[in-house]
Specification:
Rossmann fold; Dihydrodipicolinate Reductase, domain 2; 2 domains; 8-stranded mixed sheet; 6-stranded parallel sheet; 14 helices; 14 strands; 40% helix; globular
């Protein structure tokens, strides 16, 4: 069997899950791992029988990989990802693609120039509950959808300290915690015409808040004159929740991690489907799709390309821009801005 020579950048909790899933997919041959923590890199390399690096640059320079799995924060590895792309290395990156739209667009452009695959891991695209939603919508089993609501409550979730720094993180709860739920909204309903957002954080005073990313946000989206959406997000509220609701003329759909529920307009359950898949199972599906899109591209479409994810980034960029201007913003306009202008706008 053809195997892809593979390396991993970043061995945090998400990186560990990514590596565990890759080890269960026969198409990958794990050859190296890298992390700034040399001891962690060595321990992980011993477990998987591969090389260990504590220098991302040396890992890229000294090897020729078929693909690179990226779990490290963008601020710590973006130049090395570009370096790998220029060596014709295919890239799978955990969300978000970058700190802002301009950086994401640059990576997409470079991948196209080098004729390589660049994908963003969105495991919920393979979650059975969200696939059930996708099929339900495609079969037109709900009429006259007029409202979409999404909720993210991040109580008890670990947030790395660097995600509080706007220069390192690019954004807060919207970019790093709500990316998957925004992806589901855009994947199923397209990009909204307008986005209006209020963002804040729980710092003690206004001056402190200026130097921290948001941990609380309320986003309103207009898809059409008769279809609106809202996203409420908070890192400091609980209990933990990550769910999506869709309201139609005679039905309401509720989707969460392993549950899909159809209710009537009185809130009575019509249908309930519980699924048993977990994050490692979904990540395996993500990785298998990525591998097959490289090994057999004619018969295997990439499900979450970097270019497609620019739509998500445009919605998030619009939310941050709206938070600054106090006005609704248009994601389509951001998608149409030339690269040089997008860079200026991001700064």
């Amino acid at each position: 069997m053809n195997q892809l020579k593979t390396a991993l950048l970043g061995i945090d909790e998400r990186g560990q899950l990514l590596l565990e899933a890759a080890a269960k997919v026969d198409y990958f041959q794990i050859q190296a791992v890298a992390d700034k923590d040399a001891e962690l890199a060595k321990k992980t390399a011993d477990k998987y029988g591969c090389l260990a690096y504590d220098d991302y640059r040396q890992l890229i320079i000294q090897n020729q990989f078929d693909c690179l799995l990226v779990a490290a924060g963008t601020y710590s590895c973006d130049e090395y990802v570009r370096m790998a792309m220029k060596k014709k290395c295919n890239i799978l990156k955990l969300f978000p693609p970058a700190r802002n739209f301009a950086e994401a667009e640059e990576l997409v452009r470079l991948a196209e120039e080098e004729n390589i695959k660049f994908t963003i891991a969105n495991p919920n695209r393979f979650a059975q509950s969200f696939l059930t939603l996708k099929k339900f919508l495609q079969e037109n089993r709900i009429e006259q959808i007029f409202l979409i609501t999404a909720v993210y409550n991040g109580a008890n979730e670990h947030t790395p300290p660097w995600q509080a720094d706007p220069k390192l993180a690019g954004g807060g709860v919207l970019l790093h915690n709500c990316y998957e739920i925004i992806d589901q909204i855009v994947w199923n309903f397209g990009i909204p015409q307008q986005v209006y957002s209020l963002n804040t954080n729980q710092a003690a005073d206004k001056q402190q808040r200026l130097y921290l990313t948001e941990d609380t946000a309320v986003v309103t989206m207009k898809f059409a004159d008769t279809l609106f959406g809202t996203l409420t997000a908070g890192r400091t509220i609980g209990p933990g929740q990550n769910s999506l609701k869709i309201y139609g003329k005679d039905k309401t759909l509720t989707v969460s991690d392993n549950l899909f529920v159809v209710s009537d307009h009185l809130g009575q359950t019509i249908e309930e489907v519980k699924h048993g898949d977990d994050r490692i199972c979904r990540m395996k599906d993500v990785l298998e799709n990525f591998a097959l899109s490289i090994l057999s591209p004619d018969t295997n479409r990439l499900y979450s390309s970097g270019k497609e994810n620019l739509k998500n980034m445009a919605v998030i960029e619009s939310a941050y821009l709206s938070g600054r201007t106090g006005m609704p913003e248009e994601p389509a306009r951001i998608l149409q801005i030339p690269s040089s202008s997008a860079v200026t706008a991001a700064i």
